What we know:
It is a single chain. This protein has helices at 38-43, 49-52, 85-90, 142-150, 158-168, 183-194, 211-224, 241-250, 259-268, 284-289, 293-301, 318-327; strands at residues 173-176, 204-207, 232-235, 254-257, 278-281, 308-313, 332-335. It is of the alpha/beta class. It has a seven-stranded parallel beta sheet, with helices on both faces. Helix 8 links the parallel strand 3 and strand 4 (254-257). Helix 5 packs parallel to helix 6 (183-194), helix 6 crosses helix 7 (211-224) and helix 9 (259-268) crosses helix 11 (293-301). It starts with 37 loop residues before the first helix and ends with a strand.
Amino acid sequence: MRKINPKASSSSPKKGFAPPKKTFSKAKPATEKKELPEWVRAKKGLKGDGAEKGYPAKKREEPLRPPTAKTPEDRKDGAPERGSYSTKKAEGRSTGGSKGEGYSTKKKSKDAKKVQEPVVVPEPEIEIPVEVPTFAELGLSEPLIKAISEMGFESPTPIQARAIPVLLQGGDLIGQAQTGTGKTAAFALPILEMLNRSRLATQALILVPTRELAIQVAGGIWDLAKHTGLKVVPVYGGQPIDRQFRALRAGAHIVVGTPGRVLDHLRRGSLSLKEVIHCTLDEADEMLALGFAEDMESILGELPEQRQVACFSATMPPRIVDLTKRFLNNPTRVSI
């Protein structure tokens, strides 16, 4: 029988034999700090042997200084050299650069105050006082002066001072003025001065664009005419026409109305323009804008040949200019 060597290696241990145990030695506790690799020390900027082997330590950054810069320590007298970096910096200039010597490369601060030029204050103009005529100097009678005084008016407005003398002389007028300048008194006072008080017939016609303005103008004329005995009747749409029939039959020296209602009374025969000597178009551009152009032309065509026409308007559109050329005779223009 062949003997088996127990020391021979086998792929698998046989029964009855245990594999040899491996022994491990315990690690000794580290007593010294392990040194970092040279490349890590060089990257962190640590000084050591690594710097001598091609890994320089990190150097401290120093402020850049132009090659021509000189400090006071470099000079014997201690004063900065003329044209050096120190003097140019003090003067707010930079040396070298693409912009050339003598130009600053710094941006201006937003808070920098602009140099203000001295403001020349013009001398105040001397206003020459213009003598404003009184209502009595315009040629108005005593009853009208008394009514004006009771209403609190002391002196005429510019449109009144220029329009009243023209209308008192019997000439036609084109007055261009805005609302609120006193146009109502500008044409009402000459009308009240020229009418025949003893003749109870319609002698003046005033056309306005709206019923509100018709009531307002009629009320203003009535206040001015309260010492004259002249009668004023407003006619407009939105009011029972029977009431207007009775007022017109009772007699009215002055009729104030909208073009549509005035034309309606003319067609009905309740209003006659045969004795009218004065006609005023108040707010003519507004009547044109409301579509009363044809009605105005029809009413003006019914007036006698011998009459006075005044046209007041804030603007002068071409249709109004054409109307004044057709129905006004050599008018005087007054613009305020």
